[in-house]
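User: For my dataset I need records formatted as: sequence, then structure tokens, nothing else. Please produce one.
Assistant:
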Amino acid sequence: RGELLALVDELHQRHSHLWESWSILIPQLVRADAVARAASVAEEATKAFPGETEAWLLLAEALLFVGNDKGIDVALTMAGRLPLDSEDCRRFCVLLDVRGEHRLAKTYLQQRLKQSPHEIETSKHLARLLFSDGSLDEAWSVLSDALESVSEDEDLWLFADEAARVLGDRDSLLHRARSTAQMLNRSQCWVIVAMLEDENDARLTAIEC
């Protein structure tokens, strides 16, 4: 780990004019438990690249380890003023949730999903937040809408499968998967059906054992 950090650090010194060198170095510092330096470097990054959303998110994440609540709030405020892609949005809302801003994170994700209804990761993260606060029906509604718009995403179906287990309504999900495959008649849909049925068989075998 030390050798890798030294290499990344050296590359950063050579290419500090490139944002990518900062985005690689800061997480590496966090992984190496050099969180104080990570926060310091991230702060430098926000000065060098103030319009880079990830710079502010990296600063907020580093400050979370340091315990600088005021700094986190400032970094999140700045990040919220900049364009967020799907991954930025996820990280932003995770940080809001960690800061106790659960309702704000949920509202932000709901607004994001209205603007970009096909962002699967946004749907999944919103569903997680809704499940965590006990809004089970609302969470399932989000997943159901996502399955309607993106019917061939294996990860989404697996996520929905876990949710269906929690809700105790897995038979309905399997029926929906089969109906979707029959309606669209695409090979990927049938792959998903087989995957879900295999998961069911494996679970039944485990219970019987």
